[in-house]
Design a protein that fits this description.
2 strands; mainly alpha; 248 residues; Rhopdopsin 7-helix transmembrane proteins; 2% strand
Length: 248
Amino acid sequence: MKLLTMLIDGTQRIATDDYVGFTFFVGCMAMMAASAFFFLSMNSFDKKWRTSILVSGLITFIAAVHYWYMRDYWASFAESPTFFRYVDWVLTVPLMCVEFYLILKVAGAKKSLMWQLIFLSVVMLVTGYFGEAVHTSAPGPAIWGFISGVAYFAIVYIIWFGAAKKLAEQAGGAVLKAHKTLCWFVLVGWAIYPLGYMAGTEGWYDGLAGLGLNMDVIYNIGDAVNKIGFGLVVYSLAVASTTKTSEA
């Protein structure tokens, strides 16, 4: 299969049957659009919500830049842009953890909670990179994937049952609702990434490749759902809070 063709003027275009390249292109455009939406809407909210909306915009903006490079890398080499993807994640996933802290500040969340979530997210990503790009022969990916999974479930525990949940319950109302929605994103949305990891690495789960699952397609879908979705949840919370304040 020819993944790309070269036009007369030297520019590249994605082949019609390159569905992987198509998801990179759509992901890039979606992240750009989301960034513009979040940045342009910042002044519509109270000062206390602008930081949250700014972070949402930064998450999708950073992703858009990396997707631009990943799209070109795929088009040029037809290889998974693992390095660019993990650079993207190591910047954006901790920012997603920061969102939990920002919306829970109203309930007295401390910075220690934020740094705890950031640390666990970095461990999750670094160990995942080792399994996917460094120790690529079995059982390396399975071992590093297990360590990454432990860090992931530690994050899940904190936000679903630990300190973050208690703070959300204290805040109640729209904050609690938004927190629960973000928790579902982490539990269900982030679970997309282990599927991509297993589809692209060696291990006892090699059978996933036989199901026709492509690692990059899974990752691209996961990024769009989680990064844009996270921002929209925070945006909805800001709208609800601003509307309530205006009516008071």
